[in-house]
From TrEMBL:
This is cytochrome-c oxidase. GO terms for biological process: ATP synthesis coupled electron transport. Its EC number is 7.1.1.9. It comes from the Bacteria. It comes from Amycolatopsis albispora. Belongs to the cytochrome c oxidase subunit 2 family. Subunits I and II form the functional core of the enzyme complex. Electrons originating in cytochrome c are transferred via heme a and Cu(A) to the binuclear center formed by heme a3 and Cu(B). It catalyses: 4 Fe(II)-[cytochrome c] + O2 + 8 H(+)(in) = 4 Fe(III)-[cytochrome c] + 2 H2O + 4 H(+)(out). The chain crosses the membrane at residues 58-80, 101-123. Keywords: Copper, Electron transport, Membrane, Metal-binding, Respiratory chain, Translocase, Transmembrane, Transmembrane helix, Transport. PANTHER family: CYTOCHROME C OXIDASE SUBUNIT 2, CYTOCHROME C OXIDASE, SUBUNIT II.
Length: 315
């Protein structure tokens, strides 16, 4: 005797067990928290703009999963219940019901995807408007000046230093420039390059924008705004290939509470008795004395020696 054919009930039971087992493995093997699951791999940001993008991503993935589940269900339903059935002896094989030239079904398959695309476009455009929105009077303005292969940060909206100069920080091969910013305040970044095209990118902002040498001669807005939600140190990078040392053109954003930031600006305007010159960024941060957050050197990245003769081959 041949092996008895499995009944539909036994097949469904096996499929159900496999499904439950797969769900248990997925739930226990990932080790993700609830927040991480809802982010669907989206990294955690530190600005309201980043949160808006995260919300768009989360709901887009949920919508895609819902559509996917419906499509998978229809596929399995068709496979399970609309297969070509075996014919009895002497009887022609029976074909499943055919749906070609079904006008309502064809309209459904056209109209529903168009509606889905329109909805996705609406929420994408709304989120983009929030991310790119600019206020009439930002709390802080920073001029971000990129050059091969480092950064300069100026504070034109703040008081001038003891030498009547705009407060600024310039990076070098020996020192990573630190961009000190306040939390819970609207910050405008004005971007400019002195040579080639660079790109201002802080991963925790979930935002980057090219830094153009002639912002008035291209169709890209050379400024943007955001608000930082929490204190911290975040590495910033150049995200546009700009030459030999592009990969090490880093900087650090140091986000301080508004009161610490105000103290920092005051210290930058004052003269350091030891040098007879206005305090540098490192000296002002040291004077703040607020622990690792006020470390005078960058803590998220380190300078790179641009002298090629100082390096040895790794082969």
């Amino acid at each position: 005797m041949g092996v008895a054919e499995r009944t539909p009930a036994s097949r469904r039971s096996k499929v159900g067990k496999v499904t439950v087992l797969a769900a248990l493995v997925a739930a226990t093997a990932t080790g993700c928290s609830g927040d991480e699951v809802l982010r669907f791999g989206w990294p955690e940001g530190v600005t309201p703009q980043a949160e808006s993008m995260r919300n768009l991503w989360t709901w887009s993935v949920i919508a895609a999963l819902v559509v996917g589940v419906i499509v998978w269900a229809l596929i399995f339903w068709s496979v399970a219940f609309h297969r070509k059935k075996k014919a009895a002896a002497g009887v022609e094989e029976e074909l499943p019901r055919q749906f070609q030239y079904n006008v309502p079904l064809e309209l459904f398959c056209v109209v529903v995807p168009v509606i889905m695309v329109c909805v996705l476009f609406f929420f994408t455009a709304t989120t983009e408007s929030k991310v790119l929105a600019k206020s009439d009077d930002p709390d802080v303005t920073v001029d971000v000046i990129a050059f091969q292969w480092n950064w300069e940060f100026r504070y034109p909206s703040e008081s001038r230093d003891a030498e009547a100069q705009t407060i600024s920080t310039v990076g070098s091969s020996a020192e990573i420039p630190i961009l000190v910013l306040p939390t819970d305040r609207t910050i405008r970044y004005n971007l400019l390059s002195t040579d080639v095209i660079h790109s201002f990118w802080v991963p925790e902002f979930h935002f980057k924008r090219d830094v153009m040498p002639h912002p008035d001669k291209n169709n890209q807005d050379s400024s943007f705004e955001n608000t930082i939600d929490r204190e911290g140190a975040f590495v910033g990078r150049c995200a546009e290939l700009c030459g030999t040392y592009h990969s090490v053109m880093n900087f650090e954003v140091r986000a301080l509470s508004p009161d610490k930031y105000d103290q920092f600006i005051r210290l930058r305007t004052q003269v350091n008795p030891a040098t007879g010159k206005p305090n540098t960024t490192a000296e002002a941060l040291s004077a703040l004395n607020c622990g690792e957050l006020c470390a005078p050197q960058a803590t998220t990245t380190q300078p790179f020696n641009t002298d090629r003769t100082a390096r040895t081959a790794t082969g």
